[in-house]
Amino acid sequence: MSGAKRMGRTGVFGAAACVVAVTVTGCGGLSDVPLPGGADVGSDPIRLSIQFDDVLDLVPQSSVKVDGVPVGRVESISVASDFGWTADVGIVLDSSVDLPANALASVEQSSLLGEKFVQLTPPEDEPPTGRLADGDVIPLDRTRHATELEPVLGALSLLLNGGGVGQLAPIVNELSTAFDGREGTTRSLIEQAETLITGLEQQRDDITRALDGLDELTVRVAEQNDKIAAVLDELPVATEVLEQQRPQLTQLLGQLDRLGTAGVDVLDQSKEDLIADLLALRPTLQALAASGDDLVEALSFVPTVPFPDGVEKVALGNSVNLFLLVDLQIGDALAALGVGQGDPVYRQPKFGNPKPLVDPSNPYYDGNGPAPGWPTVSLLPVLPTPRLPGVTLPEGVSLPDGIEIPGVTEAGTDTDTGTGTGTGTDTDGDEAPPPGPLEGLLNQLGLGGGQ
């Protein structure tokens, strides 16, 4: 009996071992066996691939969560085909999970010493687009991993055991000594630093533009290195020339100083006369200002000389015939300038209130300037009268006392004896010669006619 029992027990254990072996062989390993209590991915799940630069100690069958709720599991972890610097994590999700195509993935930790899992979240800095579908890949730039406690504790251990804790004590003591009793100054310094940093932050765009402009200027200067070098090479020559001409420059500056002194003296001495001249110009300028409207209207007639307004209506094509009559007679020109016209005579206007001959507001009035009754002065210098034989002055015109012009005789004077007979004839009894072509001009100049 005992042998039969032993054989029965051996058969049971063998059958159990075969079942376990078959199960393990069918799953491929213990890591492929789904954990009890995991997320239900349904009958038609979707598979995604996530790239991480570090998966920490994430293992297959770890949970995949959305907002802390399990929605899938990690199916595989492998090395990506980028020379071994990226981990490729395959996950399985329930097809009902609604996540945008630009979703983010991270390796998180359930507690301080808990297990790792994959967290899927919508993007925070950009609007969600699309939807995750079967076969999509979440790239490396949209993944991250949480900071583990082990590296933090390791760094803290290095600092406390063999680090610089002992060196921190004198630094803290010196800072305490420096700030002792100066809390207000320190606070003011910190506030000013904050104001400075805030101002710099507000002017960040201007600073960026200034740096860009400086960069462009540097590039242009670098492109003109040859020209700048040539200018620098010529500077010593120019400096030497200035050194040679230093005495002349010094003398010039001294002369300019003397000229300035003389100019100041002249202005001081002629100040009253200058003021009087400016006051004399005041009526003229006032009259010019008063006629400003008329002057503007008169300017519109300037383009009508020599062509009148409306000439474009009678012009044929692009040309216009012009007929001018120009009077070039010297006598008429001098008459237009007032030569030989006699003293000015005041004529009272027929209509309106008569105006005074001289404006009383003129500072040159009452003996200081031109007054009524002065003779008209020629605007052109009188040329020397050439010897004109046979010139006889008209009746009532005589040469000034003490002035004799060869070849010019007065009317009624005998050309041989110098005594006039009053008949206007010569000694032979002939009539006086006809007036010459310059007689009118000489009359205007006060010299009588001529032949």
TrEMBL record:
<dbReference type="InterPro" id="IPR052336">
    <property type="entry name" value="MlaD_Phospholipid_Transporter"/>
</dbReference>
<feature type="coiled-coil region">
    <location>
        <begin position="190"/>
        <end position="234"/>
    </location>
</feature>
<dbReference type="InterPro" id="IPR005693">
    <property type="entry name" value="Mce"/>
</dbReference>
<dbReference type="InterPro" id="IPR024516">
    <property type="entry name" value="Mce_C"/>
</dbReference>
<feature type="domain" description="Mammalian cell entry C-terminal">
    <location>
        <begin position="131"/>
        <end position="296"/>
    </location>
</feature>
<protein>
    <submittedName>
        <fullName>Mammalian cell entry protein</fullName>
    </submittedName>
</protein>
<dbReference type="Pfam" id="PF11887">
    <property type="entry name" value="Mce4_CUP1"/>
</dbReference>
<dbReference type="InterPro" id="IPR003399">
    <property type="entry name" value="Mce/MlaD"/>
</dbReference>
<feature type="domain" description="Mce/MlaD">
    <location>
        <begin position="46"/>
        <end position="123"/>
    </location>
</feature>
<dbReference type="GO" id="GO:0005576">
    <property type="term" value="C:extracellular region"/>
</dbReference>
<dbReference type="Pfam" id="PF02470">
    <property type="entry name" value="MlaD"/>
</dbReference>
<keyword id="KW-0175">Coiled coil</keyword>
<feature type="region of interest" description="Disordered">
    <location>
        <begin position="406"/>
        <end position="451"/>
    </location>
</feature>
